[in-house]
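Supplementary Note 3. Input sequence used for the single-chain structure prediction.
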Amino acid sequence: MTVTAKNRLDPRLPSSGREVGSENRAERLREAVQAAGGTAEVAKLTGIPQSTLSGYLTGGEMKLSNSTAIAEATGVRLEWLATGTGPMRADGSGFHEETAAFSAGQARQAPEGGVLIPRYEARASAGIGTTLDPSWAVEKVMFSADFIRNKLRRNPDNLALIECAGDSMEPALRDGDELLVDTSATEPRSGPIYILRVGGALLAKRVQPRMDGTVMILSDNPRYPAEVITPSEATPLDVVGEVLWRSGTLR
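The predicted structure, written as discrete structure tokens, is reproduced below.
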């Protein structure tokens, strides 16, 4: 299942915070960097400034491109570096069982009545589709358990965060908004916005199932025409989940 720690918050929406998982990720990074010869050596190998790398070592947010470069330079698996899952190296050495494993279905109870929702390093295009790998999550964000269970009336174990890209769903969704998605809501109906996977691309769109079995894919921005997916099309339409909430800067 699907879904950056920009976490741009609308003050009208529930507060959120970063999980201690970022500290666990920094510990793994420190281990990898030390084994590869230290900060200066890894900075030279990757081209990442030492100041930036030092920020990552203290828990700062890592770009996916930099995470990949660091994993390659230090000889560790990217999945292990990002999530702690599986062995440290491709040869199976350095296995660390990470209790803070990130995946939809593993939202854990947070302190003071919160729930932790996984945030995925993927973007759902609200313009042209962007092909991305939505298979791994980079951290968890805390939401109010009361907001999730009593106002949204959803199971937190089914929820995930993914970033919106593009402008075709304006004004409902804007580029850079973080979207809270219910990955169990995979039977589309007219009205809600869904995250769709079409031919490997992730799209944020409204859908309109029709009696003849076709599905219309609709954008809120009138600049983008509706599209029709037929059951016989070679490119399948998968519903990743329903968008429940967005967090973004006020405009």
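Helices lie at 21-35, 39-46, 50-57, 64-74, 78-83, 145-151. The radius of gyration is 19 Å.
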